[in-house]
Design a protein that fits this description.
By secondary structure, the chain is α+β, with helices and mostly antiparallel strands. It has one domain (2-122): Hotdog Thioesterase (Thiol Ester Dehydrase, Chain A), CATH 3.10.129.10. It has helices at 22-41, 119-122; strands at residues 2-8, 46-51, 54-56, 65-75, 79-88, 94-105. 24% of the residues are buried.
Length: 127
């Protein structure tokens, strides 16, 4: 798992308990994983297809910094999938774990479209 981006927890990111709002975190994860999928597939035409069970392990408070990590799972003819972990950057305490996030490359009509990548040429693309 490689950690790519960091977020500072601000007042607008909090829930009624004054901890990180899960919806904000899921938004950041989907955005970061989508960008990662675009870079790996060399396509801006990717959409989120599936997110597996989400395990909220702990939370974060205002002023803390989190980092979003992604790991490559698999590649299909039209899809690519990753795992994700979000953790506190300083304590390394896990906040959330997601085993599988799947993105699909689509055409102009939103239908799955082959991306032409495989395990050999996807490893060459840097993020």
């Amino acid at each position: 798992m490689r950690f790519y981006s960091r977020k500072l927890i601000k007042p607008g990111d909090l829930n009624a308990r004054n901890t990180l709002f899960g919806g904000a975190l899921l938004h950041w994860i989907d955005e970061e994983a989508g960008i990662y999928a675009m870079t790996k597939l060399d396509s801006k035409e990717v959409v989120t297809k599936y997110i597996s069970e989400i395990d909220f392990v702990s939370s974060a408070k205002q002023g803390e910094v989190i980092e979003i990590g992604l790991g490559f799972n698999a590649i299909g003819r039209t899809s690519i999938s990753f795992s994700c972990e979000v953790r506190n950057i300083f304590t390394k305490q896990s906040i959330i774990k997601i085993e599988n996030i799947v993105f699909v490359n689509v055409d102009e009509n939103g239908k799955p479209k082959a991306h032409g990548k495989n395990l050999n040429n996807i490893a060459l693309i840097k993020y």
